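quick one, 121 residues, struct below
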Amino acid sequence: MEKAYAKVMGSYAAIASENRSPINELRIFTGAPVFEYKSDAYSTVTQAKVLWDHFKLGEDSKYVMTAQTYYKTSTSASLGCGLKEGSNHVILAAWEMTDTSNKVWNMLLLRDPMGNGKLYN
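---
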């Protein structure tokens, strides 16, 4: 999608910036309403539940969903979980998983199109 957006905008230079959100691309190519939720605004457990409810609604409604990690440093450092700072991800699925002790875990399946050669990062 980024390549097509760059073509529409004239060049990669025209869309280049750190922390660039994919919401413009989604809006242009789908014509659908686009919503952006920033995780740092959901710091309490109750607020995190609201954010998770947005993910589940998107999954259940079959919406196109993306996620982005922001830069904390000036370089694209690894966040220690297979994700890198300043990268965009497609959210392929959102579901709840219950472990053997009946604890419920909120799960996201992400794909990093600019990943390190593995299918899912």
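The helical segments are 2-9, 12-15, 23-30, 45-60.
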